[in-house]
Amino acid sequence: MVVEVGREQVLAYRAAAQGLDRSTDDPVELGVLDLGVQHSAAHTARLALSARLPRLPEGDADPFADEGAFAVLWSVRGAPHLHRRADLTHLARALWPRGEADAHSRLAAERKPLKEAGIGALEAFATAAKALRSVVTRPMPKGEVSAAVTRKLPDAYAYDCRSCKARHVYGGLLQQVGLPAGVRQEFDTSPPVLAPLENRPAVPNKPAGTVDVVRAYLRLHGPATAGDAASYFGTSQAELRHSWPDGLVEVRADGRKCWLPEEDLTALRGASAPDYVRLLPPLDPFLQSRDRDLLVPDPARQKEVWKILGNPGAVLVRGDVAGVWRAKSAGRKRLAVTVRGFGRIGRAERSLLAKEAERMAGVRGLTEADVTYES
Hints:
The protein is of the alpha+beta class. The protein is built from 16 helices and 16 strands.
């Protein structure tokens, strides 16, 4: 039997699965950390996790800067993510390419020069990971790391940078091997400072546990297709099929043939539009689902939510993306938040959004927040 659900039910399920109902009060236990939470200089991971907690820590306590529990590393698709430290060994193996074709699908600009030099894609991953690991033995600025790794690698691994008139290792490859190399970023440093991960395991020589992370994607972002999951992990659908989990049920989600872990079917069937509002930061896990046509059906509004550079945050009202927001500090104490709604945002929702803005201000070390609305 195929289960059929509509868009509203899918979004309601995902909001709950990703902890936006604030039913978990321990940041380490948040389900979104099973895949990690993408982080940027705008403190996106901190804002994403705080949006999921029922209460924020008092005073100067910041659980997300607990380097005994968390670490920021280049991981999924080579992007910086906040992870539980306890998960890192497993994730390094689970995200390692399964073979030459998988490694090749994850490369970009470096594909051609590596191929012309007779260097295989999987060989490139292993060689770059070992070089990065050997360089980062102490905290070092990213630029210094890049220069040192470039010197260690054959010429095909690097390109000529026009802006600084130097030769650099391809950044996409360098960042994709950050996790397996055991290299983390220090918290809240700009430009990034890289440091060796404590007690780091050896660079993997084969993947293990990839099925687990694919299942986690389907649980958090499902019901979803194999193509959605492959896009999320930066690989091809053909390669992902080798790590496709058992125990899935077919779901028709807004007319699309999708899949969900069988143990999550009851939660999907019982999902209904929530009554809360949330201010989601750019790169929030809720916005990382690959079926953007389902998240935001209007193509014009998709362009407002997902930009090539400088994404805004998203306004979530009853489980639906109802607008975008941007914020900036106004003086030493106040956060100025500007909301652009995709439709009318009612008085009750505005009152709740004002409270969410105050919460966000607290995360950013400010004490007040003002919200203004653009038509």
